[in-house]
Design goal:
two-stranded antiparallel ribbon; alpha/beta; GTP-binding; Rossmann fold; 2 domains; about 400 residues; IRG-type G domain-containing protein; about 55% helix; 6-stranded mixed beta sheet
Length: about 400
């Protein structure tokens, strides 16, 4: 079950534990981690999406929230301008993330020279300027104003699935050539309106794993600070193996801090076991992992509606978490009891052998290793099931 943690790997983590402890007394370590966690929990991400009517910005808002256009609380969509004023939409699973559907620049109520002031540009971390066909002079004016305000912006050409489908009727069709033609057209239009070195991302809200949405994500990661980058990765739809890996790496970093924290708070024996750890940390973190990878029932329901697959079919793809829709404390304790054999036989012995290094905090060392192992084990299972669900989504209908 889960990962194979060798004694050498655990010893490496205990060495890190020792090094962290030696940075200061245990209360100093606890205070630093608590401060880091508070910063992370309070970090928000505000994404502004703007564009002309019919550009697909509202649909993009919904896609980034892992919702369909028809769902309750989704952003209204249509070929006419549906957004009369700026509208905020919180991510349903990650309330730290807010997507803003902004009215198109140059509309009667939002003149280009007053636009940023009217939509309160200061509250957004970055802007996505969307176009369903061609970028306009107003788009370039907006980009220049955003640049003046020292904010980041990204040109995004939406509806690529529609464009590719239409072009398939052409003789000697080549998808690669068509993509390059569309990119060149967008760049030429932007240059013609005064943008000297535009970069355009070609995307489809229906197929985030195709075209250049992964490149857009990479650009966002590079431009955001560490805290906001973490929030972005957690909230991203799990649409590719690359995103699953990003989430795994982000959660691994978090697990290290939480494991260190578990040895500084009151350790609680797990019912039926001789080991102790902080169950509250385990339960809350496992829930976060479960939701982050979209393995909960609500996420799978939304995914099924978006890709046209029955939710039961997606649930069946989960091998490690069969029949699990939400994580209860009882489930977590049962999971721990089933996973604990390796720790009982090997880890406690190793921690005791490590007493000269860990010193008076041997109890904390045991709690640290227990928490670390359990969360890494759970993360491994979640990654495997996320990959299984992704494979099911990618299966072609017979």
């Amino acid at each position: 079950m889960g990962i194979a943690l060798t004694k050498s790997l655990v010893k490496e983590e205990l060495q890190r534990f020792k090094a962290a402890k030696e940075e200061g007394n245990i209360e100093d370590v606890k205070a630093k981690i608590m401060k880091d966690m508070e910063l992370l929990n309070n970090t928000t991400l505000h994404i502004a999406i703007t564009g002309d009517s019919g550009s697909g910005k509202s649909s993009l808002v919904n896609a980034l929230r892992e919702m369909t256009d028809e769902e309750k609380d989704s952003a209204p969509t249509g070929e006419i301008e549906m957004t009369k004023d700026k509208q905020s939409y919180k991510h349903p699973k990650f309330p730290q993330v807010t997507l803003w559907d902004l009215p198109g620049i140059g509309t009667p109520n939002f003149k280009a020279d007053e636009y940023l002031k009217q939509v309160n540009f200061r509250q957004y971390d970055f802007f996505i300027i969307a176009s369903g066909e061609r970028f306009t002079e107003n788009d370039v004016k907006l980009a220049c104003e955003i640049k003046e305000m020292k904010k980041k912006f990204y040109y995004v050409r939406t509806k690529m699935d529609v464009s590719i489908s239409n072009n398939k009727k052409r003789k000697n069709f080549s998808e690669e050539k068509t993509l390059q033609e569309i990119r060149n057209y967008c760049i030429q239009r932007l240059r013609g309106t005064g943008e000297h070195s535009p970069r355009v991302f070609l995307i489809s809200r229906w197929h985030l794993n195709n075209y250049e949405f992964p490149l857009l994500v990479k650009a966002l990661e590079e431009d955001l600070d560490a805290l906001k980058r973490h929030v972005l990765i957690m909230a991203l739809p799990t649409f590719s193996k690359e995103v699953i890996k990003k989430k795994e790496n982000a959660m691994s970093d978090l697990i290290w801090k939480l494991s260190l924290l578990s040895c500084t708070v009151g350790a609680i024996p797990i019912p039926g076991l001789s080991l102790a750890c902080d169950i509250g940390i385990l339960v809350s973190t496992m829930r976060k992992i479960f939701n982050c990878f979209g393995l909960d029932a609500e996420s799978l329901r939304r995914l099924g509606e978006r890709v046209g697959k029955p939710v039961d079919e997606l649930k069946s793809a989960r091998k490690k978490f069969q029949g699990v829709d939400t994580l209860t404390k009882e489930f977590v304790i049962d999971y721990l009891q089933k996973s604990v054999a390796w720790i009982t036989v090997s880890t406690v012995e190793l921690v005791l052998d490590f007493v000269p290094v860990v010193g008076s905090v041997v109890g904390g060392g045991a709690s640290f290793v227990t928490t670390y192992y359990m969360l890494k084990n759970f993360l491994s299972d979640a990654v495997e099931d996320a990959q299984n669900v992704l494979a099911k989504v990618c299966e072609k209908k017979e």
